[in-house]
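Students often ask why inverse folding is considered easier than folding. One informal answer: many sequences map to the same fold, so there is more than one right answer. In these notes we will look at a single instance of the problem. The structure comes first.
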């Protein structure tokens, strides 16, 4: 909550600073039932009314955790609907939020949606070396050197530089006879996992991200659910906790 009356009114939808100062000056605003004409009046924790109507404080920032379902796009373009934006709970719809990186429409999994630009930078800048874990179901036969090639960095078509060294574990074969693998990446290039598997001779059939930093996709979030991140989860996200890390036992995507 903003401390000053003018900032408080402005942030809660009553107009620009100069407009709300006029309202205050002309006696339209009461704090705890008393008309206040001083725009710098401190209002933290107090009841504010404008022409008798109580001012309900709007949320001004938020970081949400989403289990992105298959089929939704991270774009803001309505032509790309259905959008991740449509999954944002009503209480946060007025905020200007972005995803920290993107998942493809046909990728499911953990995604952070936030108003916090520096947090997006922290989660997406490869220099921060924050690992994301992908569970992959693939067809085709991978090059025998796949694990070593991924560890060394793969040259992807059209990219000026090889990928950063990453960790690939070939987990086995599923009931459909498709290969299953886990990939830990510290960067997020366009269609990176799909392109890496292509470069290795395979084709991604299903892709699911189940961990960012030290945060696993929360057990209470079914596909499509989005809610505010907790303090503990935020710490885990930055890898600042005793989270298990690394290549835990795979969960079928
Ligand atoms: N890599 C991809 O190819 N797609 C995603 O959605 C995420 C990583």
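Output (designed amino acids):
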């Amino acid at each position: 909550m903003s401390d000053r009356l003018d900032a408080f009114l402005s942030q809660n939808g009553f107009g620009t600073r100069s407009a709300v100062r006029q309202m205050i000056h002309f006696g339209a605003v009461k704090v705890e039932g008393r008309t206040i004409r001083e725009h710098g009046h401190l209002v933290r924790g107090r009841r504010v009314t404008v022409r008798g109507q109580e001012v309900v404080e709007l949320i001004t920032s938020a970081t949400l955790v989403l289990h992105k379902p298959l089929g939704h796009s991270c774009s803001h373009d309505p032509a790309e609907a259905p959008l991740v934006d449509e999954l944002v709970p009503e209480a946060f719809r007025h905020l200007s939020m972005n995803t920290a990186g993107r998942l493809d429409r046909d990728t499911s999994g953990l995604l952070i949606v936030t108003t916090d630009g520096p947090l997006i930078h922290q989660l997406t800048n490869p220099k921060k070396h924050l690992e994301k874990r992908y569970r992959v179901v693939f067809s085709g036969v991978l090059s025998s050197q796949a694990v070593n090639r991924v560890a060394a960095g793969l040259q992807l078509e059209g990219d000026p530089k090889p990928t950063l060294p990453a960790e690939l574990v070939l987990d086995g074969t599923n009931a459909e006879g498709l290969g299953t693998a886990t990939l830990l990446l510290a960067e997020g290039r366009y269609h990176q996992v799909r392109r890496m598997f292509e470069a290795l001779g395979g084709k991604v059939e299903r892709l699911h991200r189940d961990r960012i930093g030290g945060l696993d996709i929360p057990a209470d979030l079914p596909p499509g659910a989005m809610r505010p991140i907790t303090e503990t989860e935020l710490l885990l996200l930055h890898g600042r906790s005793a989270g298990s890390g690394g290549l835990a036992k795979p969960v079928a995507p």
